[in-house]
Amino acid sequence: MDLGVKGILFSYTIVRIPPAGWPGEVPYALAQVELPQGPQVLAEIIGCKFEELRIGMDVKLTIQAVPHENGGPDTAVSKRRHV
User: Fold this and answer.
1) Which CATH class is domain 6-82?
2) Of 34, 43, 82, 83, which one has the fewest beta carbons inside 10 Å?
3) Distance, first Cα to last Cα, the chain
4) Cis link prior to 67 (omega < 30° from 0)?
5) Within a 10 A sphere around the Cβ of 65, how many other Cβ atoms?
6) CA of 44: how far to CAs of 3, 56, 71, 83, in Å?
């Protein structure tokens, strides 16, 4: 199933205490994104200041390499960027 690259910000929260092993920056915005095909997905929002986040804003899929915490190969992670 092709989920496309565009979506709408449905909901979000600012995570200040990440789960164990979180490799990214803290705090970060974790969003529920509604896709045009109907499903909703969770993704970190990048490239947008927290105060600029708005329900209903357009976001676009981006793939970002995340380093493995034990020096193993990077993991490709789906994130959403404000457009």
Assistant:
1) mainly beta
2) 83
3) 23
4) no
5) 10
6) 17, 16, 22, 14
